[in-house]
Amino acid sequence: MKSTKYILSLDQGTTSSRALLIDLNGTICEVCQKEFPQHFPHPTFVEHDPMDILNSQLEVTRQVIQDGCSENDEIAALGITNQRETTIVWNKHTGKPVYNAIVWQCRRTAEYCKQLIENNNADMIHKKTGLVIDAYFSGPKIRWILDNVDGARSAAEKGDLLFGTVDTWLVWNLTGGKCHVTDYSNASRTMLFNINTLKWDDELLTLMEIPKAMLPEVKESSMIYAHTEKSVFGKSIPIGGILGDQQAALFGNLCLEPGSIKNTYGTGAFMLMNTGSEPVLSQDGLLTTIAWGLKGKVTYALEGSVFMAGATIQWLRENLGLIKDAAESETLADSVDDSYGVYFVPAFQGLGTPYWDMDAKAAITGLTRGAKRAHIVRAALEAIAYRINDVITIMQKDTGMELKDMRGDGGAAVNNFLLQFQADISNLSIIRPKNIESTAMGAAFAAGLATGFWKNLDELKTMKEYDRVFTPEMSHDKRQKLYQGWLDAVKSVLK
Ligand code: ADP
After folding, report:
1. Per the structure, how many domains does the chain have?
2. Does residue 383 fall inside a structural domain?
3. Which CATH number covers residue 212?
4. Residue ranges of the alpha helices (H) in 427-493?
5. Rounded distance between C-alpha atoms, residue 79 and residue 19, angstroms
6. Phi, psi for residue 482 in degrees, rounded to 5
7. Is the CB of 269 under 6 A from ligand 1?
8. How far is the CA of 92 from the centre of ligand 1 (A)?
9. Fewest 10 Å CB contacts: which of 25, 185, 314, 414?
10. For the segment 48-102, what is each residue's pLDDT rounded down to a tens digit?
11. How far does the centroid of ligand 1 lie from the alpha carbon of residue 311, in Å?
């Protein structure tokens, strides 16, 4: 019987764990997904049980191997992509977590982050880590565990505890506790890693009182780190790729050249731009991060996010009942020629980049007697594109790079009206990839490159397939007028 070779991609997300089997042509042959519980022990706390993360990931991985692989088939390597920043601390002798995983969304360290800012650390931390001080990042979360779990600090100081983001936790368990590693993309989200020297930063470790012995070794994003213990999947598989989820999506979209950019239109939107071999520090609140380390070279990225993207459409459906499902937003938007002067500013959680006004509230402006449901729905879709355009504008300003196109993926990218309006308002071609699993593909590409499954980046590029390219059709004057109207509407909600 003929054997097939696969790459296994482990996609460990915030609400579910997924595993995918991918063949040499980049075709996804098998997928399995399992959700796991979210814990909210306090209004601002978000936690996962690290054993749920591990067990759900093991379960779906075993399932795809069982469903998709015959005896003769071979798994060339596995790659991991993961929810970023989520923090796990465990005992290295017993493998037992000392506390639940503190999830990236958790705000319990906000007060400590405020103190860091008040003590004038923002500039130093931005220069060293590329990050704007925020409760998202892992360093303060580790500190919280050491300060709040009985005996944790002394155990850490004795060298008994290990820290890991989710990639590290998975690799450690897959290798029977033999391998304690992470990659540059994940390390750069801890607020402890110096993205210039590519080392854990002693000054930051001292500031946050974190013993260095807890930290994993930081490696490239595509290399053979170790092999899985045979008992885990019934065979020993090389672990060949690690990438944080957004960086994996950038890689999976093959945004390999400086200036290439992807936006994921999900609940929120995450935009990453490849800025090449030098970090670019933003003056407007974008994050500088490591995209990946590959073959002795580190590639940097700028990252901007928008809190409300697809969630705006969800709000129209769930809170107003204006649409019966998300897809209807497209039909309604297309049923009118324009938004009739209506603007929808979705500042439900304040406004981030570049306004940074956490007290702003959402508003629908420009309503007149003639305004209809379709105009409001259309304005909501347009608002997503305007917010993304706000971020694109800042990225262009901070990098001085002229952009030509942007890749668009994520759940709301199925909306043709949205992507066409994005192309028009941003004067950019928006490319929608055929394979929307860019995050899982990024991890698979990294693992496949490490083992020679795919020879080089050129071979990956032959797998690039587009579903549709949206090209700008709007006149310059109309674009200016509409965008100015948006900026005026935003101004009216800022505090
Ligand atoms: P996440 O991974 O962030 O949870 P997804 O990538 O699955 O999210 O995207 C889900 C979001 O996309 C939801 O907020 C939903 O409202 C939005 N969405 C789904 N389909 C459409 C559509 N046809 N038009 C506009 N938005 C959509």
Report:
1. 1
2. no
3. 3.30.420.40
4. 438-451, 457-461, 476-493
5. 10
6. -65, -45
7. no
8. 40
9. 25
10. 999 999 999 999 999 999 998 877 678 999 999 999 999 999 999 999 999 999 9
11. 7
